[in-house]
Amino acid sequence: MKKxxxxxxxxxAVVFAFAQSEKQVKWSFESKKISAxxxxxxxxxxxxxxxHIYSQDAGDGPLPTSFEFTKNxxxxxxxxxxxxxxxxxxxxxxxxxxxxxxxxxxxxxxxxKVKGKAKTSLAGKVEFIVCNDRExxxxxxxxxxxxxxx
Length: 150
Prior knowledge:
By secondary structure, this protein is α+β, with helices and mostly antiparallel strands. It has one domain (2-149): Immunoglobulin-like, CATH 2.60.40. It is built from one helix and eleven strands; from the N terminus they run αβββββββββββ. A four-stranded antiparallel beta sheet has the order 1-2-8-5. Strands 6-7-3-10 form a four-stranded antiparallel beta sheet, with no helix packed on it. A three-stranded antiparallel beta sheet has the order 4-9-11.
C-alpha cells in the first residue's frame, strides 16, 4: 500500500510540474499577409513572473526553443524562424557557459508561401523550457494550428 501511495504521489508531482511550465508561458499565434501569396506567421510567447525562455540558439546547456512544422503540400516555408525581442546574453553558472534568452515577451516569425488561392493552415509544435535564477521547469510542448491563405 505504501508503494502505491508513493507512486501516486510522484505521478501527481510530475503532472503538476509539467503544468507549471505551460502556466509560465502564454502562447498566441496569428498570421499576417505581407504579399499576394506570402504570410508571416507570428508565434508570441508571453513569459510570466521572473522566468525567461531560451533562444533557438540558446548556447551550451539549456534546451533551446524549437519549432517543428507539419508538412502541408499547400505551403512552403521561406527561410528559418526569426526571433523578435530583447535578447539577453548572460553567463549562467549552472551551465558554465554564456546562454541567450528572452524575458517577458518574444515573437518568433516564420514566413510561408501559399500555393494557389487555397485557405489552409500551418500546424506544428513548439518545444521550450523556462528558467529563473533558481530553477528550470520541465520542458513543455505546445501544439498550434494557424490559418493562412484564402
